[in-house]
Amino acid sequence: MSYNRAAARFGPMLLTGGSRSFARTPYALPRNVSAVAILLPRRGLATETTTSSGHDANHPPPGFNVNEAKKPLSKNEQKPTESKTSQEAAKLDDVAIPKNEATSHPKTKAAEAQSLSELAKEKAAEGKKESKEVAKKEDDKKLTLWQKVKKEVVHYWDGTKLLATEARISSKLALKMAAGYELTRREHRQLQRTVQDLGRLVPFSVFVIVPFAELLLPVALRLFPNLLPSTYEGQKSKDAKATSLRSTRKEVSNFLRETLGETGLPVTAATAQKEEFAEFFRKLRSTGETPTDEDVIKVCKQFKDDLTLDNLSRPQLVGICRYMNLHAVGPDPLLRYHIRYRMRQIKRDDRAISYEGVDSLSIPELQTACASRGLRTYGMSPGRLRDDLQMWLDLRLKYGVPSTLLVLSNAFAYTSGKETELHTQVDALRSVLSSIPEELFHEIELEVHNAEGAATNKQRLEVLKEQQELIEEENEQSQSDTHAAKALPKDDQDIDDKNEKEELPKTDAERELKEAEEESKKV
């Protein structure tokens, strides 16, 4: 019992330790605790906020007054800390971090936080798109067979009502045109679209009249996608056509870059004899200088549409037809007829848009007008489309650049996508003109010498052989496809723009001279 009493008396003094431990009031332990309990840690029983050991990092050091630390600082003590933080912020603001260039300054925390937030926004947007696509796929999967049939029936019923409404509106437009009133561009396109849709109903009605012929309707629509009227066309088919047209135009753009570099554009003796023509190609080829925009436009005026189309090779004609979303099947005269017919439509549409203004077009009409001219429409804003269309109209109507060269320049610039300003479009025209090879100048030499009376028989013989080879190729092509040659349309209309001064002679002497020239041509 005496050992237990001694342990109870001196135990608290040994546990606390240090010089200050004797001034404290020891914790009264119960008298029945054994001496072995002195060796156990008494941390769970301690009521002090500090310890004298100082080795535990979770507690304040000895001598630290908690009550004084809780008091707020005075204003004088806060000023030096605020000045330090303001200086650090000014240093961070002075550091300019370029976005697209390498920099020697390290990125600040603010810039890193901003970039991370932007990345987070982009990922969130991508996640929303993916979730929408997944939701659409799930909705399509959830639809039963009866629901899909019902959905298609509703779609065709709405298309029928839309076609009936368009027919009723177009009948009024036809009466207006028959009465002698002039239709606007929008009214003319409405009437033309309705007439085409009604014409497509004739072969489509066969599947309705003939019993069980509707079973072959999906096969017919697969083979002939334009069999149905435009009011029955769904959004998926429109997107598929637009995607295929974009891929086709990219292929044709690369193809025309290669083929025009090999064959080039046709050049006549009249254009080759002009000083600006020779000076332009001297700068472009010999000296390596870049011709001005005015020189490019002057030279482009010499390449007429009919002259260019008549001298293009078959691969180039097929490429232009594919680029303009035309049928690329048939002999060369049929392809030229399709291109000329589309060019005439575009020229009439250019005058109508120029008269009414580009701003009068709605966004769907603007996209259709740009797509018909071979301009890029996918991913372009309405403002960019209006600028591109206005640039086309300026080059066509104001500067007199032929439509064929503009289409070729759009094909050249389609893959690069640089059509925002006038000089880039002129750069595309310059690249088209620079693709004329050196061999064409040797062929032009004979025509120049004939005009001067200095042509030799050797030159005439070489050109005659070349022309005979071209004639034989055309004859072989016509013999291989005799039925198509018989059904060729009459392509005798000129699509070149002519001045009224040239068409209408002023004096009687000029009229007589013109009549004499026409009679001599007939003889």
UniProtKB/TrEMBL annotation:
One of its GO terms (cellular component) is mitochondrial inner membrane. It comes from the Eukaryota. Residues 68-82, 119-140, 488-523 have a biased composition (Basic and acidic residues). Residues 244-438 form the Letm1 RBD domain. One of its GO terms (biological process) is intracellular monoatomic cation homeostasis. It is found in: Mitochondrion inner membrane. Residues 47-140, 469-523 are annotated as: Disordered. Pfam families: LETM1_RBD. The chain crosses the membrane at residues 201-221. Keywords: Membrane, Mitochondrion, Mitochondrion inner membrane, Transmembrane, Transmembrane helix. GO terms for molecular function: ribosome binding. Its main location: mitochondrion. It is a single-pass membrane protein. PANTHER family: LEUCINE ZIPPER-EF-HAND CONTAINING TRANSMEMBRANE PROTEIN, MITOCHONDRIAL PROTON_CALCIUM EXCHANGER PROTEIN. This is LETM1-domain-containing protein. It comes from Aulographum hederae CBS 113979. The lineage of its organism: Eukaryota, Fungi, Dikarya, Ascomycota, Pezizomycotina.
